[in-house]
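Researcher: Structure for this, please.
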Amino acid sequence: MESNSVGGTPWQNGNGHPGGSHSSDDVDDQRELSLQDLLEIVRKGKWIIAGCFITVLSLTAAYTFLRAPEYQATSSLQVNSENSSPQLGDLFGLDKGFRNVLNEIEILKSRTIAYRVAERLFELPTPASEEEAFDVLAEPDEGPLTVAMVVDRLRDEFVRVSPVSQDVDFINIVAKSSNPREVAEIANFYAEEYVDYNQTASRARMRVAREYFEEATDEFYTQLQSYEDQLRGYMDQETVVAPEEEAKQLLDQITDLERMSYQTRSQLEMARSELGGLEVELGELVPGLASRLASADGKVIDRLSEEIAELEVRQQQRIARNPGLADAPDKELNDIRSQIKSLTDQLDQRIASLVDSENGIVNASETTEESLSNIAFLRRQITAKKIESKALEARLAPLDTNLEQYKARYNVLPGKQIRLNSLSRSYATQEKLYSEFFERLAEAEIAEKSELGYVEIIDHAVIPSTPVKPNIPINLVLGTMLGLMLGLLASFVRHALDNKVRRPEDVKKLGLSLMGAIPNLDRVIKSDFDGQKRVSLNGHSFDTSLITLLNPLSPVAEGYRRLRTNIQFSDPDRAIQVVMVTSAEPSEGKTVSSSNLAIAYAQSGRRTLYLDTDLRRANGHKVFGIAREPGLVDLLFDSVSTNLSTFASGIEDLFIIPAGRSVPNPAEVLESMKMQQFIERARTEFDVIVIDTPPLLAVADALLMTRQADACIVVCSANSTALHALESASSMLKDVGANLAGVVLNRMDGSGSSGYGYGYGYSYQNYYGEKPAGKSVAAA
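Model: Predicted structure, token format:
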């Protein structure tokens, strides 16, 4: 029934040497988690895991099933600027206005569209029941519901606008609410109102162009009639004939130059007018911007615009002189184009810098992103108009110069021809202007009538049949996973913070030999003795913790027999006669362990002495049910009988010497010459001496007894003794030169450590098939 090892050779530590030591850092490095460790952590933390799992899953389920369902509906728009009719600048061949999807999204997010939608929502009929009522129209706690409140709710809570992707010009309008009909209505109202707004704005721009051309055409027609009457009256009065060929050529050239000069001047006035309107609009959007435009950045922008305009005029003049160079490579033209590109890049950087600096003065009624987008858009339009104005001014100057030159040449013609040519020239010029503006008027009228905007509804929102939130399966799965993860995390955190000795591997990782693993006595005492503290055997009362005596076939008794064997083999160079049993701290089971070990020695036929040297808190006499006096102190200092045979316990081959009376100086007693002589005498009368000593970390008494012992055993309690306490106790023994045979892991949970090879004890009695002796022991 005996074994010479428990989970390995008992006299070797982790390095293969007796009594070796490891530093704390080495211990931390060695405490790696294996799969069995992980499973053990999970097993011990099963209630934490179960609690976290149930709590998190319950909260998730409560949130999922109690929250109001949320529905979602989406309408889609396509932004296609190519379908829009030309603006006023487009009719003159100028650049189109800057427009992109992000600008349209900002307009959709604006209060203007939200206000239109809110008004339509107010026009809906009153719902028949509260279930059909729209959340966005819910009455506030204080005061009546207003359109402004609905506008804020739409923008903040109910509607989200986003592009489908960066590669397509599609916009999604997503409405969310607990009412499925409400989300469909809001999404569709937003789409419809934005399309209507877009059409109205586009037609408004076309109307401005038409009204301008109507006014200009009427004015040109009136002037044309006047010139026609003057020419007819002069020819009738003077009876002049057509001018000569030279005069005719001069007249044609002067006529063309005047037409071009007038047209250029009209375009310049129009550009300046539009520039003024844009600056007024920008001033309203950003108060105080005018002073900022006069800053260094504004002056640099104006200078760059003038330089770009001058270079464009030079480019046009060179192409006009040599039309073939428009598509052919030319060094001078390439240089001009390169300079234009460089100046344009600088201009864009200055504009971006100026726009970024305007963040702090945007209109408080708009969001920052929306305001910056509008400011950038207006600033680029203003810059384009300035460049256009500079280009027209530069074009007008040479036209006026050439016109004066041709007029000077024409003035040398004879008086009547000059007069006739002058009237003819004015009539021809006015006729061409009238014809051109009449054509522009016709185009503007057609554009206004055909303008449908550049936004189209692709998909209308439909009433959703199922809510998007809560997603019951996903929520429950997430709750399950989160609960398990939280429970596992709590278990691992508890394990990481745990510094207790819990299993045999913890002892070995400290570099200490494991001499034995003793199962927890509580289960055995409860099953064998119905949980009683003491029982009577052969007329003598014993503590039920003496399992080796009361139930020698129990797993605990087998554990002590293994301990006895391992002690004998712990030092092959000498026989172990005096065994000192101690612990790191109180209440770790050293007295129970030393008592059972002494009984195990006696049961093997050796004449054994149990000596209680814990003079401060003696418990050995209580375990064996004998008196404390006379005892060790009485033997050393009183004239009591010195025949040690008188301390026979009634247990074959076991003699018990209790601590004796209390003394004020236990350390001096244990260190005395009498104590040394007593141990020497006991060595001659007994085969084995088991000494029960006080805890190492509590007092120094145990260290004083180490010189008398052949081997020292440290008892630690599983799930109770701290690792650092066990390490400190072993270091203290090694520091005084004691022969530390190893450690006994007491009160170990065998079911939790069976995976490590230490759960052997609980199947022991089933193997022998006998009832424990304790069942027949009479209760005390």
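Researcher: Any notable elements?
Model: Residues 499-779 form a domain with the Rossmann fold fold (CATH 3.40.50.300). Confidence is low (pLDDT under 50) at residues 1-30, 85-99, 360-368, 752-780.
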